[in-house]
Amino acid sequence: QVQLVESGGGSVQTGGSLRLSCVVSGYTYSSFCMAWFRQAPGKERERVAFLNSNGRTTYTDPVKGRFTASSDNAKNTLLLQMNSLKPEDTAMYYCAADLFSGWLPTYCSDGYTGEGYQYWGQGTQVTVSS
Length: 130
Prior knowledge:
The longest helix is centred in the C-terminal third of the chain and has 4 residues, at about 105-110. The protein contains one helix and eleven strands. The mean pLDDT is about 95. The chain is about 5% helix and about 50% strand.
């Protein structure tokens, strides 16, 4: 059974940093595409970062230059480094991924922009106070 487990959320003041982790278990994969999403109360879910195993990354405009998505393949862990945090970054953050034992499919290599990932984590709360 594939599981994605997030951690690293918490409460910080404006300007602080957090690093979110998403540990993947239950599947031996050689390629992937994944995204970090967030959802604040009363707002729609928003994709903040995309990463694939080819190293392609994309970010939503509000987090560009502040957030960095990466992977630690030796630890089957996906990471989101968040710097210069702002109160508007307050939300529940989720990782989502599609995992493959072979080549990366085209939709993933091209930078998938949808939300139809097969696997999702349970979420970790990030709260930024002013």
